[in-house]
Amino acid sequence: MPAIPDHLQQQLNILFVGFNPSLRSGEVGHHYANPRNRFWNILYRSGLTPRLYHPDEDGDLLELGYGFTNIVSRPTRGIDDILPEEYAEGRVELREKIAQYRPRIACFVGKGVYTKYSQRSQAPWGIQSEPVTEGVVEFVAPSSSGLVRMPLDDIIDIYRELRIYANGEQDND
Asked: InterPro entries from the entry (predicted)?
């Protein structure tokens, strides 16, 4: 199954970085297309998008300053199907993409994505104090997979923090 296309351009406000496409995403050619994935709902409910977008509109988010890529481009049933050498190759490619496109914020959709990228054993939610790519804010957010056991409202709150930071808003909570 071919990789789905990245949505990249210079000076994005946020580049969302996932593990890899699901089989459903690979079939339809769009990011976060698995119906059990809550990504689009999370973006909307956190205020990152003005309306609920759908996977086939992923390219439209470039107009909002949002892009998409993955650490591994091959679609799989799950992350357990990703080979160690794919992570190693993907890490190099992802670092090159981030250095080339210079997004303001690289948002890693899942702690595991960030730990594979940074080669650190752990990472807190939110902004990372020592970014891998200097000059790019690295933000770790929960995975949007329906398999994640964290309450959806807690996930949305972390994405709301991303929105507040990305938009230069004051947190009045």
From this structure: MUG/TDG, Uracil-DNA_glycosylase-like, Uracil-DNA_glycosylase-like_sf
Task: Indicate yes or no: pTM above 0.90.
Answer: yes
SS (H, E, C) the chain: CCCCCCECCCCCCEEEEECCCEHHHHHHCCCCCCCCCCHHHHHHHHCCCCCCCCHHHHHHHHHHCEEEEECCCCCECCHHHCCHHHHHHHHHHHHHHHHHHCCCEEEEECHHHHHHHHCCCCCCCEECCCCCCCCCEEEEECCCCCCCCCCHHHHHHHHHHHHHHHHCCCCCC
The pLDDT of residue 80 is 84
Letter for the amino acid at 138?
A: E
Per-domain residue ranges for the chain? 14-167
- Provide the token pair at 92: 């190099």
Query: In terms of residues, how long is the chain?
Result: 173
What's domain 14-167's architecture? 3-Layer(aba) Sandwich (3.40)
Helix-helix angle 152-167:39-46, to 10 degrees: 60
